[in-house]
Amino acid sequence: MGFNSSGGAINWFPGHMAAATRAIRDRLKVSDLVIEVRDSRIPLSSVNADLQPHLSKKRRVIALNKKDLANPNVMHKWTHYFDSRNQDCLPINAHSKSSVKKLLDLVEVKLKEVISREPTLLVMVVGVPNVGKSALINSIHRIESSCFPVQEKIKRATVGPLPGVTQDIAGFKIAHHPSIYVLDTPGVLVPSIPDIETGLKLALA
Predict the structure, then answer these.
(1) Mean pLDDT value of segment 71-76
(2) Which CATH number fits domain 13-172+184-204: 2.40.10.10, 3.30.565.10, 3.40.1350.10, 3.40.50.300?
(3) Which DSSP string do the residues of 138-201 spell out, in sequence order?
C-alpha cells in the first residue's frame, strides 16, 4: 500500500482484486438484482466507485450493514439521503434474522416483475472488504421461513476475521420455483483510495 506524503491517494490493489473486479463486471451483466452491502457508519466511504456505473444500471438494494453499531439519528439521515435519490436502501444487521428477513422482503418486491417469466434468477452480493457480505449470505441460509425457502443443504460462505476472505465468486442456491441463486463475491476496493481520511475510515470500520 502506498501513502502519498502530501495526503493524496492510497494505492493498494492485489492481483486477486483486479481479477475479481473483471469477473464481477462480467456477472453483473446477467444478474437480475444486486445487493450492495455497505458499512452503515461510513456509507459513502465503503463504496467501490469503479463499480457504481455498472451497479446503477441494475435493480439494486443498498444494504447498510452493521446498523447496530451506527448512531440511529445519523442512520435516519442517511436513509433519507438515499431515498431522496430514488435508491432503495435498508439498514440491516446481517446477524439478525428479522433484519435479514426485511431485506429479503424488499428483494422479493424488486424481483416481482421478473419472477413470473424467468425460470432462474441471479442475485449478486457485492461490496468492499469486511462489510459483512458472507455473514449476510449465511444468515439467509439460516432463515427457515423466508420468502425464498431453502429446500436443500447448501454450503455456507466462509467468514473470517480478515477482510477479503472470500477470494472467488461462489454461487449458492437459495430457492426453487423459480430457482434463485445468490453469488457471494470477494471484497474489492478501488485501485486508488482518494485520500488518507477515506483509507482510515475503511481501516477502522
Answers:
(1) 95
(2) 3.40.50.300
(3) HHHHH-SSSSS---S--PPPP--SSTT---S-EEEEEETTTEEEEEE------SEES-HHHHHH
Q: For residue 173, report the phi and psi dihedrals to the nearest 5 degrees.
A: -80, 125
pLDDT in tens, 157-199: 554 444 444 445 567 777 777 788 888 877 665 544 454 454 4
Q: Are 111 and 61 in contact (CB under 8 A)?
A: no
The letter for the amino acid at 183 is L
Q: Is the dihedral of CA 144, 148, 153, 158 positive or negative?
A: negative
What per-residue confidence (pLDDT) applies to 41?
94
Question: Directed axis angle between helix 97-115 and helix 133-142, to 10°?
Answer: 90
Tell me: cis bond preceding 178? Omega within 30 of 0 counts. Answer: yes
**Whole-structure pTM value:** 0.76
* pLDDT for 59 beyond 80: yes
CA-closest candidate to residue 111, choices 64, 168, 59, 151: 59
pLDDT at 85: 94
CA distance 38 to 44: 8
